[in-house]
Design a protein that fits this description.
Layout: E1 14-16, H1 24-28, E2 34-38, H2 40-49, E3 57-59, H3 66-75, E4 81-86, H4 88-101, E5 104-109, E6 121-125, E7 131-136, E8 143-146, H5 148-151, H6 156-177, H7 186-215, H8 220-240, H9 248-256, H10 267-281, H11 285-298, H12 313-324, H13 340-351
Parallel strand pairs: 1-8, 2-3, 2-4, 4-5, 5-8
Antiparallel strand pairs: 6-7
Helix pairs in contact: 3-4, 6-7, 6-8, 6-10, 7-8, 9-10, 9-12, 10-13, 12-13
């Protein structure tokens, strides 16, 4: 069995409506010893709207690391359900701890910034916040509970990052399958159709969704974009498997995590920049020009300065490129022969746009 190649669409149950948090007690009734994994801001937002849950509570340390997941699992060895309440790193920590415990996971996203609440996959980091690995968990979440009133509390920058991370689904899938367009297996064709639908949703509705977020009003544009970020994006990798997961954009993200000046930037923002670098390497400058107005409209990073990279540029580019072009990284899935020098060249081409 290979968890990296089998079809694993996503969460067992996806519950998305205003007031969805009220269903948590019923959802959790089958479990004898649930625990909560959360962060301070995440739990504060949840507590304003959600039911009181009288379960042991563990704060994650902000890293989404194996070490932190192991700490939590060791503190609650009898837990049979891990309730993750928070953003992507909280939820990946919860899923990682549940994997150690052989327990179920219930994901309660407090913001719309990525598909972590939906997928049986986690982005795992080292304690120093540098990227470590993609984890393929043996179980998808038991349930994902998306309450629109809670998602409306998403900070603006996190929602923008979610748009950037989700936008990559289309560009990375196209890059991964460019030489096999006419011979994709059925599930990969489904993944491509989903990714194309996501791309269209973001292009047409993301600005209106951001306006709804600012106004604190649930609108169809807001729920469509939030569902695309949290749930639908996860089906791309779930159906497409290797065809629908990380490629050049995420490899650039992983390289950027080795620069301390980028640590305060969100995952999806760095991935969005990575899209531009991937397109540059593929020679698709016209596509860069076509998407830049959208980047400007929603506030996605387009230049090194947007990533806080303003000094020692040559050294910074070399650091990013060394990781992004390594044999362990997903840029190799698009171009097996890519070199660090070519990544640097692509980043400089983006800078010139």
């Amino acid at each position: 069995m290979s968890l990296t190649t089998e079809i694993r669409p996503g969460t067992n149950r996806y519950i998305n409506h205003t007031g969805a948090l009220a269903q948590l007690p019923e959802l959790l009734a089958p479990f004898a010893k649930p625990i909560i994994v959360t962060g301070e801001k995440s739990y504060a937002a949840f507590s304003e709207l959600g039911p009181q849950l009288d379960y042991p509570l563990y704060r994650y340390d902000g890293t989404a690391s194996d070490e932190d997941a192991a700490r939590i699992a060791q503190a609650a060895p009898d837990a049979d359900c891990v309730i993750g309440i928070g953003g992507g790193r909280v939820l990946d920590t919860a899923k990682d701890a549940a994997e150690v415990l052989h327990a179920a996971t219930v994901c309660v996203p407090t913001l719309a910034s990525n598909c972590a609440p939906y997928t049986p996959i986690g982005a795992i980091y080292n304690p120093d916040h540098s990227f470590k690995r993609v984890a393929y968990f043996t179980q998808a979440p038991y349930a994902t509970v998306v309450d629109w009133d809670l998602i409306l509390t998403t900070p603006h920058d996190y929602f923008v990052a979610g748009i950037g991370d989700t936008l990559a689904k289309w560009y990375e899938l196209v890059g991964l399958t460019k030489d096999r367009t006419d011979s994709l297996p059925a599930f990969s064709r489904v993944a491509k159709a989903v990714a194309e639908s996501i791309f269209a949703t973001l292009k047409t509705q993301a600005p209106a969704a951001l306006q709804a977020l600012a106004s604190g009003v649930v609108t169809p544009a807001f729920t469509d974009v939030a569902d695309s970020i949290i749930g639908i994006a996860g089906t791309t990798g779930g159906f497409g498997v290797a065809d629908g997961r990380q490629a050049g954009a995420h490899a650039i993200h992983n390289g950027l995590t080795h620069l301390s000046e980028t640590h305060e930037l969100l995952h999806g923002s760095k991935v969005a920049y990575g899209i531009l670098v991937q397109l540059a390497h593929e020679g698709k400058v016209d596509e860069i020009q076509a998407i830049l107005p959208f980047y400007r409209a929603v506030g996605l990073p387009m230049k090194l300065a947007d990533l806080n990279i303003t000094e020692h540029i040559d050294e910074a580019l070399a650091t990013v490129a060394e990781t992004a072009a390594s044999d362990a990284e997903s840029f190799k899935l698009i171009d097996p022969d890519i070199t660090p020098a070519q990544v640097v060249q692509a980043m400089r081409l983006v800078e010139a746009q």
